[in-house]
Amino acid sequence: MDAFMYRDGAMVAENVALERIAREVGTPAFVYSLAALRANYRAFATAAAALNAEVHYAVKANSNLAVIRAFGALGAGADIVSVGELRRALAAGIEARNIVFSGVGKKPAELREALQANVRQINVESRAELDMLDAVAGELGRTAEIAIRVNPDVDARTHAKITTGRKENKFGIDIDLARDAYGHAASKRHLRVVGIAMHIGSQILSLEPYRDSIRKLRGLISELRSDGHRIDRLDLGGGYGIVYRRDSNERPFAVADYMAMVRQETAGLGCALSFEPGRALVGNAGVLLGEVILVKPGAARTFVVVDAAMNDLIRPTLYEAWHDIVPVCEPPAGAITSTTDIVGPICESGDYLAKDRAMSPLAAGDLIAVKSAGAYSAVMASTYNTRPLAPEVLVDGERYEVIRPRQSLDELIGADRIPAWL
Ligand SMILES: *Cc1c(COP(=O)(O)O)cnc(C)c1O
Question: 24-36, pLDDT tens digit by residue?
Answer without folding.
Answer: 999 999 999 999 9
